[in-house]
């Protein structure tokens, strides 16, 4: 049985990574929703992020009853993989105990989907993580941001802030995504999928 199936019964620490771009310029971008979720998780456990060897901001905590490392790479999104692999090696984390929280263009805004493994679907952050780890077999919490309007370039869309109507819903989405992470660590993938693969989050 894999760690993703057993949840908290598996041994060893968990590494929960939020993907995003560092710095205030990007803080409100759609591409940074992974960082937003990690910030909320750290707030929930009353911990703060500390720089780990200059590669990532890390908070060590008990999350859902298990040891978890909450991490936000200090590199830009497209080269997220190197700090993730450095943390995995330093803390001796099994691939099956890595959870990556990221934005997802191909599911509607407000929707959360979870899976183990798979391709990167054009997401450069995931591509970098997969290449650095040498494996696709890590868990993903995919937070829907929807498709760009009209003919807008997706690369431009993800680097824009959420719209005013979206910002009203955003706290509920981030809260639900954080709940999904905790459920994943506590109850495993299948149960969490059954719980969260439902209609978009509502207040």
From TrEMBL:
GO molecular function: peptidyl-tRNA hydrolase activity; tRNA binding
Gene3D superfamilies, per database record: Peptidyl-tRNA hydrolase
Enzyme class: hydrolase
GO CC annotations on file: cytoplasm
Residues holding tRNA: 26, 76, 78, 124
The protein's Enzyme Commission number: 3.1.1.29
Record text on subunit structure and interactions: Monomer.
Protein name as catalogued: Peptidyl-tRNA hydrolase
Organism: Candidatus Protofrankia datiscae
Record gene name: pth
